[in-house]
Amino acid sequence: MGSENTYHSSFKTYRCCVLIPTYNNAQTLAAVIDSVLKYTNDVVVVNDGSTDATADILKGYHNLHIVTQPANAGKGMALQTGFAYALNQGYKYAITIDSDGQHKATDLPTFIEKLKDNPRAIIVGARNMGQSDVPGTSSFGHKFSNFWFMVETGIKLPDTQSGYRLYPIEALKNFKWLTPKYEFEIEVMVRGAWGGIDVTWVPIDVYYPPKGERITHFRLFKDFTRISILNTLLVILAILYGRPAMLYWNLKKKSARKFINDHLINSKESDHKLAGAVSLGIFFGIMPIWGYQWAGALLVAQLLKLNKVITYVFTNISIPPMIPLILFASVKTGSLFVGDADAAGAEFSTATITFESVKAHIEQYLIGSLVLGVIVAMLAWIFTYFMLKVFRNKKEATPNLLT
Asked: Among the three residues 198, 216, 248, which one is the final residue of a domain in this structure?
């Protein structure tokens, strides 16, 4: 991958530092720092209230950024402190490496190479959990964490517990974090993914010392309980916010034309199924369950085995510019079944209608929105179905015309 000197300049080019959080790892700290300095002088060490010889060791280095916390606050807080300091120093990225000697600086170039093609991504160093010296608790925690991360984000990662990572700290700077300890490394990945940041991985090597020499500050019961509570909260938030937000960000990265080609024209699903997803999304977009339209639509899409991406996209018919029109049309439709149609027409217009005026005619609005939703959904199904027939047949016929 190139010489160590080459990567000194790469770290400068990408404004990337190596962040080493440390707490009472005096036995291994110096060796870790020395190995990192072979690749970059952009090193930030956060001394998280160590009570051993850590402070004395750090005094022997004059080319480091050293941040000292007066008391131990937890790994999550050490990382957050390091991120804030690195940003203040002008860095855009930070590679975090543990100070216990398990991670190897020889893998730093792997992160830099991956960064070149993934400038807005959290890059996780994935360990080989099948090697013989992996502790049993680490193997179980690894599988447990991978499963819940996939539930919360839909992303499959081979190792969600590794602390060897590259963070795009500039892209993460506006996040307000909830957790201060080990569970922060889960929160940052999940919420980063919800916020439109890619999460990917690179393979890394790892060293597990013999059992008697291992130093860990992970408190099995307390920290596992905290992680479990966090995952419970994240699963709930994933249903209410996170997964739809990821759909939004994924779609935002694509043009409308590309979305139609990828998810409709070139889809392997049948025309009637795709038309059903469009009409279902529009139906729920008109329904008077503001704020939960996408949730209802995705639940029904799951039950009917319809395309959830398409369904979600078309629930967005109720975007702000369309809301007055939908409210007006719903009230007008409802007036055909409840109240006086002429009176409703005189009282309401798309320019003056408000939620307050709708509340005064709530029965009319509820019935009207249901009827309007059914009618528009049926028309959308018919239109989408026949348009797919036309464009898909045209696409299939094109190669024959060229031969």
From this structure: 248
